[in-house]
């Protein structure tokens, strides 16, 4: 029944694929696999369709609002929060719509979620009168459509790998969906890997949240992110060091950033991933398609989907947009580069390089505060040598940077983030305690596992 309901939600997409089956791009077996993946994925949404949740409809009072303005706030009740089944007892969930800014610094609405622990009580403060230490969470790739914002996910997308762990340890968590996800009203829709824009989304989420719960939050704050969010954490640290960021600096006293598995330079990562796939291996996660879609929305005259994608790939896009990352990865795991692309010249174009500098924010740039970079040495999505190269770029250009690279041998993309959790969490704790002294130069360390039989799979 659930499969039937899901298919009825995108009949045009299903019909389009059926018409293309003769080309071999997605036969009935492919479609059956995709439908099952989408059913599993959509079962983790609080409602069957984000269009059914009026919270995400940006209200009329957004007209004339400025970046940092709070447009809507919702404290999710203890009965409704059951829709977010991953949230543990005692934790409070709120959602908000606030104003951020686009690449031209024009206002744009963004949704976010907020987690508060049960109490701020600690040993020495049993009444819990102190405000919560405050973290901005920047999520990794979750999809390319409105329903893929983490606030529209029963486990907030990363669950105990990220925001639930932070809140369970006594921190307030302010977590943007990124503009174009969740809230309606973003003119260019979601911009994948847009580090400069995501950094604004992070900072303005703090500015807006303080207007309701400022008394609950420390003025000091830090940002933590993984994958696309790791890039966002890095870019936030860089953007806050630049001139003309006075409005973003109203977020509070910025202490530093943890950038885990940062997807820093798509113009380097994507050509390499396509080269590794070659002509015979399946593509897997369609992050390159997400980027191409974003580029086509931002610069339609320079990036036309039909110039690069095959007819069969074009027919898959409605299905790609109907779900999020997991169903998309299942769908594209069936196909090779030559089945998806007429040509891949866009991945090495001057226009992509220009986008990477202006919108992604690739530097090197100076840092506003200390930064810890966490990178798995077996990462098959954000390759460790690419991360190390960018770290060295920053350290060479700004040799007094208080930056640390923590390498995790033997583990892939998410697994390394889990494994490094004790290390980066102690770094965060010392940051807020004021006992983490800024370094006068970059440093690099490699973790040493205590056994050679640690878990290699990702159970998240």
Structure report:
This protein is α/β, with parallel strands linked by helices. It has two domains: 2-43 and 273-357, no CATH class; 50-265 and 362-446, Rossmann fold (3-Layer(aba) Sandwich). It is built from 16 helices and ten strands. The protein has helices at residues 2-9, 11-20, 28-42, 163-168, 195-213, 228-239, 266-277, 287-298, 305-308, 311-322, 325-332, 337-340, 350-360, 384-397, 413-419, 421-433, and strands at residues 70-75, 92-101, 107-116, 132-138, 171-176, 217-226, 253-260, 371-376, 403-408, 443-446. A ten-stranded mixed sheet has the order 1-2-3-5-4-6-7-8-9-10, sandwiched between helices. A hairpin with a 5-residue loop joins strand 2 (92-101) and strand 3. Helix 1 crosses helix 3 (28-42). The longest helix is centred in the middle third of the chain and has 19 residues, at 195-213. It starts with a helix and ends in a 14-residue tail after the last strand. Residues 1-23 have low confidence and may be disordered.
Brief characterization of the structure:
The chain is α/β, with parallel strands linked by helices. It contains 16 helices and 10 strands.
């Amino acid at each position: 029944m659930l499969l039937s309901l899901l298919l009825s939600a995108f009949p045009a997409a299903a019909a389009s694929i059926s018409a293309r089956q003769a080309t071999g791009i997605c036969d009935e077996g492919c479609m059956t696999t995709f439908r099952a993946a989408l059913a599993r994925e959509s079962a983790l949404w609080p409602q069957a369709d984000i269009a059914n949740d009026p919270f995400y409809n940006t209200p009329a009072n957004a007209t004339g609002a400025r970046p940092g303005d709070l447009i809507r706030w919702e404290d999710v009740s203890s009965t409704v929060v059951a829709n977010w089944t991953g949230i543990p007892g005692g934790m409070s969930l709120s959602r908000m719509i606030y104003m951020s800014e686009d690449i031209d610094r024009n206002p744009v609405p963004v949704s976010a979620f907020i987690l508060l622990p049960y109490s701020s009580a600690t040993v020495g403060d049993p009444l819990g009168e102190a405000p919560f230490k405050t973290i901005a969470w920047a999520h990794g790739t979750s999809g390319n459509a409105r329903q893929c914002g983490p606030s529209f996910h029963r486990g907030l997308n990363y669950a105990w790998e990220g925001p639930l762990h932070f809140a369970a340890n006594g921190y307030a968590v302010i977590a943007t969906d990124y503009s174009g996800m969740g809230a309606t009203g973003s003119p260019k829709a979601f911009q994948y890997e847009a580090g400069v824009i995501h950094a604004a989304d992070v900072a303005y989420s703090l500015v807006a949240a303080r207007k309701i719960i400022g008394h609950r939050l420390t003025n000091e704050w830090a940002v933590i992110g993984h994958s696309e969010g790791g890039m966002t954490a890095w870019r936030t640290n860089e953007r806050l060091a630049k001139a003309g960021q006075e409005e973003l600096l109203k977020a509070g006293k910025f202490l530093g950033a943890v950038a885990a598995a940062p997807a820093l330079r798509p113009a380097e990562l994507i050509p390499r991933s396509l080269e590794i796939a070659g002509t015979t291996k399946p593509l897997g996660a369609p992050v390159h398609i997400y980027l191409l879609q974003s580029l086509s929305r931002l610069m339609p005259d320079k990036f036309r989907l039909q110039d690069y994608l095959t007819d069969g790939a074009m027919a898959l896009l409605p299905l790609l947009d109907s779900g999020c990352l997991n169903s998309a990865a299942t769908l594209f795991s069936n196909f090779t580069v030559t089945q998806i692309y007429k040509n891949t010249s866009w991945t090495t174009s001057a226009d992509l390089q220009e986008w990477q500098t202006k919108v992604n924010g690739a530097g090197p740039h100076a840092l506003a505060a200390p930064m810890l970079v966490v990178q798995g040495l077996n990462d098959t999505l954000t390759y460790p040598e690419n991360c190390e190269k960018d770290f060295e770029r920053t350290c060479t250009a700004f040799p007094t940077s208080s930056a640390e690279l923590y390498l995790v041998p033997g583990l892939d993309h998410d697994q390394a983030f889990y494994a490094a959790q004790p290390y980066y969490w102690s770094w965060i704790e010392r940051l807020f305690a004021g006992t983490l002294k800024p370094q006068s130069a970059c440093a690099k360390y490699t973790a040493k596992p205590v056994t050679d039989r640690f878990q290699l799979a990702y159970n998240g």
